[in-house]
Design brief:
The structure is a single chain. By secondary structure, this protein is of the alpha+beta class. It folds into two domains: 103 residues, D-Amino Acid Oxidase, Chain A, domain 2 (2-Layer Sandwich); 108 residues, no CATH class. It contains eight helices and six strands; from the N terminus they run βββββααβαααααα. Strands 2-3-4-1-6-5 form a six-stranded antiparallel β-sheet. The longest helix has 24 residues. It is globular, with a radius of gyration of 20 Å. The model has no long low-confidence stretch (mean pLDDT 90).
Length: 240
């Protein structure tokens, strides 16, 4: 059936505009209901501008229909972010200047009970489609490929290699799926909005350093790139 819709809709675009902040920073603005993400795609050009990728997000907007190449009129999105013009970045102006805006429902798939059937298995989004919180989909597909190659190279048979690959990766990605459904590392934005809706002077006035580290560490461990976990596990390289 159709993938379950989270109720959130994403609008993605690329605009050429003047740099924001230091020209090399990724920003995430908002909370669990409405959010804006932007980061530069290249250096500043001779005209003083640079390509900037952005994602605008809003709960309740859009239809939830699964269409991955659906261009839309930018004006309704500009209107949603009309009050988000700051002295360091003009979000509505950035949205309005995009070459094209595509609409995407934020959907995922429930964790599957099985990936492998004989000599056939699943990898990447086919195995574990999840929300883009944490920008980690490509990394998980790479981990799938490395793990699959390792087990195929070391198992007694292709079938045994596929089963070992699934035993490694399916529980790990199921845990990460649950993390993304709880906003992943972006949980701190939700906490800040809930605890200080009128703003704050310093993030530690709202969320202590230990709690910030706890949120970050939980996601890193689930995603498989916490330094301690990486350094403590066996290599996926095969030496012959």
């Amino acid at each position: 059936g159709a993938p379950p819709w989270s109720g959130l809709t994403l609008w993605r675009g690329v605009a050429t505009a003047e740099p924001f902040l230091d020209g090399s920073t990724m920003v995430m603005v908002g909370d669990g209901e409405q959010k804006f993400v932007a980061y530069p795609l290249g250096p500043v050009g001779p005209d003083g501008r640079m390509p900037i990728n952005f994602i605008a997000e809003r709960r309740g907007a859009g239809s939830g229909e699964v269409d991955w190449n659906h261009p839309i009129d930018p004006q309704p999105i500009v209107d949603l972010f009309r009050e988000w013009a700051f002295d360091w970045i003009d979000i509505p102006a950035l949205i309005a200047s995009a070459d094209e805006i595509l609409e995407y429902p934020m959907v995922d798939r429930d964790a599957l009970p099985q990936w492998t059937f004989g000599r056939t298995t699943l990898v990447g989004d086919a195995a574990h489609a999840m929300y883009p919180n944490g920008s980690n989909g490509g990394s998980q597909a790479t981990l799938d490929a490395r793990t699959l190659a390792f087990h195929l190279a070391t198992a007694a048979s292709p079938e045994a290699g596929l089963r070992a690959y699934e035993a490694d990766r399916r529980p790990a990605t199921a845990a990460l799926l649950e993390q993304t459904r709880q906003a992943g590392p972006e949980k701190v934005m939700v906490l800040a909005a809930e605890r200080a809706p009128e703003g704050f002077a310093h993030i530690h006035d709202v969320i202590g350093p230990d709690e910030l580290e706890e949120v970050a560490t939980a996601y890193k461990r689930a995603a498989g790139f916490h330094p301690a976990s990486l350094n403590g596990r066996a290599s996926l390289s095969v030496v012959r």
